[in-house]
């Protein structure tokens, strides 16, 4: 059995990760592409359509991957769900919590599976870290922190839309904090309270260039996420502190995993989206929820909404 896919959008993320993952994953088959330039579909040997509406009417694909800017995530996802298609949507889920809620409600009302591409949940290192935490490697976890700092200013480049709040929803809060907030929820459970701040300190842009998020989870753990587009010193830190020790996943996007009495190298897949595509396809075929679902991503949206309200 295989899941047939329609991919909406053929930008950088699609050509480098999503389409290669679908083509390589044994439970997946590419059936079509939605792109304003239909010629871009030709190299993949599948039909192209200029609109999702036209594609849904003509393409037999069972699943739709939404790989567009954030401002159309909700409308395209809901249209596909109401057409009876499963949906895997790029992160963040939507422009705000209310839009995300309408996506989840549409999935619950119509029945198809809704997933959000928080692919870091599928990192083997993250799974190993969760196993170690559950086994008591650091005692009871009490606090976790993540930072992602870099210099990012895409004015005049292909990703300039990230600087437009009407298209992106926010700056680094929505672009990079969302991944880490989602991981904190994955490790420590449902967010019960959240607060934070965002501001624009360095770049002359309409979205924030930094954000700090503090969340209290139902496990009692507090997590702190700090993200910045204005740092000449790159950081990709992720640490979990327990009553009896500390676990270090720094850099998060590396294989390194250090904990009391041990150190391991647990590399991610060469194509970071491959495990996400694989998990979603198998989830649909097996009739289970994907590891990153609309319901789990909605919790990340809720946390970000608490921070958005502070600017």
Could you please describe the fold and organization of this structure?
This protein has 9 helices and 14 strands. With 311 residues, it is α/β, with parallel strands linked by helices. The protein folds into 2 domains: 3-119, 3-Layer(aba) Sandwich (Rossmann fold), CATH 3.40.50.720; 124-267, 2-Layer Sandwich (Dihydrodipicolinate Reductase, domain 2), CATH 3.30.360.10. The strands form 3 sheets. It has a 6-stranded parallel β-sheet, with helices on both faces. A 6-stranded mixed β-sheet has the order 8-9-10-7-11-12, covered by helices on one side. The protein has a two-stranded antiparallel sheet with strand order 13-14. The termini are far apart.
Task: Annotate the secondary structure layout.
Layout: E1 3-8, H1 12-24, E2 28-34, E3 48-49, H2 52-58, E4 63-66, H3 73-82, E5 86-89, H4 97-110, E6 114-116, H5 124-134, E7 141-151, H6 165-168, H7 172-188, E8 191-199, E9 210-217, E10 222-228, E11 230-242, E12 246-248, E13 256-259, E14 262-265, H8 274-286, H9 294-308
Parallel strand pairs: 1-2, 1-4, 2-3, 4-5, 5-6, 7-10
Antiparallel strand pairs: 7-11, 8-9, 9-10, 11-12, 13-14
Helix pairs in contact: 1-8, 3-4, 4-9, 7-9
Task: Give a quick set of tags describing it.
311 residues, alpha/beta, Rossmann fold, Dihydrodipicolinate Reductase, domain 2, 6-stranded parallel beta sheet, 9 helices, 33% helix
């Amino acid at each position: 059995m295989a899941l047939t896919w329609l991919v909406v959008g053929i930008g950088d993320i699609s050509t480098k990760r999503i389409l290669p993952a679908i083509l390589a994953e044994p439970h997946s088959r590419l059936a079509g592409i939605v792109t304003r330039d239909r010629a871009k579909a030709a190299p993949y040997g599948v039909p192209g359509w200029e609109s999702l509406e036209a594609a849904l009417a003509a393409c037999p694909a069972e699943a739709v991957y939404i790989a567009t800017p954030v401002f159309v995530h909700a409308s395209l996802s809901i249209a596909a769900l109401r057409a009876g298609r499963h949906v895997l949507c790029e992160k963040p889920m939507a422009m705000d919590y209310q839009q995300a809620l309408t996506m989840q409600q549409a999935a619950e009302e119509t029945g198809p599976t809704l997933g959000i591409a928080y692919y870091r949940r599928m990192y083997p290192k993250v799974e190993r870290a969760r196993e170690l935490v559950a086994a008591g490697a650091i005692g009871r976890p009490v606090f976790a922190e993540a930072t992602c700092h870099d210099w990012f200013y895409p004015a005049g480049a292909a990703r300039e839309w990230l600087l437009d709040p009407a298209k992106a929803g926010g700056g680094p809060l929505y672009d990079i904090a969302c991944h880490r907030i989602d991981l904190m929820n994955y490790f420590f459970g449902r967010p019960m309270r959240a607060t934070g701040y965002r501001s624009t300190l360095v770049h002359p842009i309409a979205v924030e260039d930094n954000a700090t998020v503090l969340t209290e989870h139902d496990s009692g753990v507090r997590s702190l996420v700090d993200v910045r587009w204005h740092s000449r010193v790159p950081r990709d830190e992720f640490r979990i502190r327990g009553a009896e020790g500390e676990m270090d996943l720094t850099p998060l996007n590396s294989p390194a995993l250090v904990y009391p009495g041990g150190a391991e190298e647990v590399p991610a897949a060469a194509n970071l989206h491959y495990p996400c595509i694989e998990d979603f396809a198998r989830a649909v075929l097996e009739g289970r929820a994907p590891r990153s679902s609309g319901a789990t991503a909605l919790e990340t949206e809720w946390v970000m909404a608490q921070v958005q309200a502070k600017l």
